[in-house]
Amino acid sequence: MTFVDYYKILGIDKSAAPKDIKNAYRKLARKFHPDLNPDNADAKKNFQQINEANEVLSDPEKRKKYDQYGKDWQHAEEFEKQKHYREKSSGSRGAGYSGGTSGGDYSDFFESIFGGGGNRGRQVKYRGEDYNAEIRLELIDAYKTHQQTVSVNDKKIRITIPAGIENGQTIKISGHGSPGINGGPNGDLYITFAIANHSIFKRSGINLYATIELNLYTAVLGGEITINTLDGQVKLKVKPETQNESKVKLKGKGFPVYKHDGQFGDLLVTWSVKVPTNLTDHQKELFIQLSKS
Fold it and tell me: Given 168, 195, 222, which residue is the final one in a domain?
């Protein structure tokens, strides 16, 4: 495993405070975000490295292991177990025994237990590292089940995204993380979804909310208007004397329930009665007469 200097990736010193790590990550993430560099393959790779570095260095426990064991930090617990075993074995063989690891470095030790040192140690299987990725969706994309291709470490993976996925929700794709070591199982891929706000519809769970303009004449006299939903257009009857900010519920026109086919929330419409402007003198006179009646 090649050593990756996470401090160098973020452009900070090993003595950097948590606040410095956070600030460096935010600055670089904005600079190399794929959405801001759609035609730059290197930016995407840098963005992945920046996220990986931040994930390790922003976690006190992971950072401690990384500082102590370098590229082998993920196997720190196994190292401690092996070290304890060897020290115990060394003590039972007498003071003249010199087979401990205190004279070597950690990399030599791991090379031996991974099989790189010939017959010096048994091969130990290790599970691969988990990967993390983010998929950005429009609200309409999350409305229907569909497939997308996500690229992780230059490997394309086609996944099915169920309708009703939540903003911030994370799903696991088993076995698509880093390969295991010495025949160990692969890690998993965790995908987090970021769903953008919609210009018309606001989502809360399985319900949708929309504010629709209603002209004064329809509000007063009643009538029928056509409004948009995420499932197409629908005609809606307006009751006479409809008040501003009154609400109406369209049952089953909300968001799909995650992994429950055919089940939907509701769409709640708030009427915004629009007062006419630029009236002619005749129109103003009619309103005056109406106010006196």
Answer: 195
Q: Is residue 265 part of a domain?
A: yes
**Treating both helix axes as pointing N-terminal to C-terminal, what angle do 41-57 and 60-69 enclose, rounded to 10 degrees?**
100
In a domain, residue 218? The reply is yes
> Left (φ > 0), alpha (ψ -120 to 50) or beta: where does 102 sit?
alpha
Which mean pLDDT values do the consecutive 10-residue runs of the chain (293 residues) have?
79 92 90 82 85 90 84 72 61 42 46 47 76 93 94 87 94 90 89 94 96 95 95 94 96 95 96 92 88 81
CB atoms within 10 A of CB 170: 12
| Chain centroid to CA 4 | 24
Are residues 43 and 16 located together in one domain of the fold?
A: yes
Q: Which residues contact 23 (CB under 8 A, 6 or more apart)?
A: none
Residue 174 belongs to domain spanning: 131-195
